[in-house]
Amino acid sequence: MRGIIQILVGVTFVGMLFAGSFLGALSNPEPHGVPVAVVGPPQVVERLAATLEQRRPGAFELSGHASEREARAALLDREVDGVLVSQAGRLVVAGAAGRTTVTVLTTVFGEAAKAQGGRLTVEDAVPLPPGDAGGVSGMFYTLALVVPGLALALLLAREAPGLGPGARVGVMALGSALVGAGNALLADVAFGALPGDLAALAAVSAALTLTIALVVAGLLRVVGVAGAGLAAILFIPIGLPAGGGPLGARFVPEWYAAIGQALPVSAGAEAVRNVVHFGGAALGAPAAVLGVWALAGLALLVAPARRGRDERVGAALPAATAGV
User: What pLDDT is stored for residue 322 in this prediction?
Assistant: First the structure.
């Protein structure tokens, strides 16, 4: 009877964690710190910044640019999310960076232009592909990399508990490469949801999958099955919404977005977006996050385990991975 009660309490907690995390992060999106390049003289930028700060405090961060060419370069390099050419009454956006961002920028700057008796025209410099018109493929694609990473570490520990660290890493690297290549082929070639650079997409996908696998394998070795369970909770019901999902990190609570930026799931999703839509721009930060997590997992994996730990983990995993 006690075991049944524990199961009921456990599944209720997990369900509430998923619901609370996703709904809390995504149900009431508000912009914060959205970077926008403004082409125009400094006084125009300052006046517009003061007006926006008064109407929507903290929502936007404006930066002045001397030319439209310079501002567009900043947009394509992921330094800003929009370009306002004030004198021409034109807003340049990147739909592939997030539909919510485009909607907010268009609404806010459109209202500002209308209040001054003008009209705002909108240009999408980096539109979403036809295969991902809703802009949600990136989030689900990331999930399709995280789950195999978890499963790879768990199943390998179950089937080959005595495998040494070097061989284990090698098998996980091979499995991650296969997952990355297979998923990239589906997303790019088969469905056209994430087209543009198949090789880069496959490489980034493999990197995220391997990072997750290394962390879970390391936790299995040092902590046990409970550690892998905590990693799964951290990466899926927390990691996905903390990264903003289809909305983007600038539309979830700032404290939650800060957590997301430190997790490999958000870094992987950002890397996927950047290689697919922006030619590999701004990969430094996501690569650094993935690298830190991968090294941490590797360090745990090669750390001395308590005597008999691998055998006990292998014995405990059949029931724990029955549904994997």
Answer: 52
pLDDT of residue 321: 54
pLDDT in tens, 229-279: 999 999 999 999 999 988 899 999 999 999 999 999 999 999 999 999 999
Assess whether 110 and 153 both reside in one domain: no
Whether residue 207 is found in the same domain as residue 314? yes
Tell whether pTM > 0.85.
Answer: yes
| Amino acid in position 194 | L
Place of tokens 């005597």: 307
Q: Is residue 195 part of a domain?
A: yes
Which are the contacts of 194, defined by CB distance < 8 A and separation ≥ 6?
129, 131, 132, 137, 138, 141, 184, 187, 188, 201, 272, 276
Residue-number span of the structural domain to which 184 is assigned: 133-320
Of 103, 127, 151, the residue that ends a domain is 127
Q: Is 311 part of a structural domain of the chain?
A: yes
Whose CA is closest to 152, among 227, 217, 218, 92?
Answer: 217
